[in-house]
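Possible regression after last week's pipeline update?

I re-ran a chain I had predicted before the update to compare outputs. Posting the input and the new output here so someone can diff against the archived version. Not blocking, just want to make sure nothing changed silently.
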Amino acid sequence: MRKLSIFIIALTVAGVAQAQQLTLPRPSPRASLMQQVGTTDITINYNRPGVKNRQIWGGLVPYDAVWRTGANEATTIQFSEDVLVNGQKLAKGLYSLHTIPGRENWTIIFNSVASQWGSYSYDKEKDALRVTVKPERAEFREWMGFVVPEMTTDTAKIVLRWADTAVPFTVDTQSTARAMAASEKAIAGVADQRWQLPIRAADFAFTNDRMTEAQRWLDMALKEKENTQTLWLKARMLNRQGKKAEAIRTAEQAIALASPEQKNFADFIRTESNSWKK
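New output (post-update):
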């Protein structure tokens, strides 16, 4: 009898443990957006409420009141480097992302207290930044979410979408300027001025229309070594300057110096430089 009682107790404890571990679907499921912009990682973690035949703006979400920008826990946004949000400085770090919806304008709030439930304990004194933005009419979306519809090496347009509204703000990572400064520092630290590092920096600068730095670093690379890579960048720069004949001659020199392992690269240069002749 005593063994039976122990067995029943064991079953009861196991049942309680299983109940405590029960996981049920959330009405507003978790979601995240991670986007690398240049050299900066931007991560947004949030919960996605649905419209569910409810009036959202001015109803479920009141106008002119602080909103958690989602459901359950407050939405968070993290930047791996210092950024500009709509032109205003914001230090790298993790923030809770609150908003104040309005009929004409919205306020987007980056609050230094990242971990909080909704906006119930929100403290304005802990705000790191507030920006004012214009909401836009948009195609209906049942589930709230964040998207990045536009992006460059430096900037990302981040848009909150829900119901019939889109709320955009822009993050500028200044990654090109950081890369230029990092390249300058790295190149200065190379004692023998090898060609590999300057040509990488020059190619990046050329791609991002920083022609002064591109020319200076290309000259450094060419001084160390004239090869397929350095001459090909020189040819592209000459072509951009409108010096097509000289650009084509330089491209041919680059092809002539290509090793057997660089056959595909040489074929690519030939195709590109031939298009300059048209």
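Follow-up from reviewer: compared with the archived run. The first helix runs from residue 2 to 20. Marking as no regression found.
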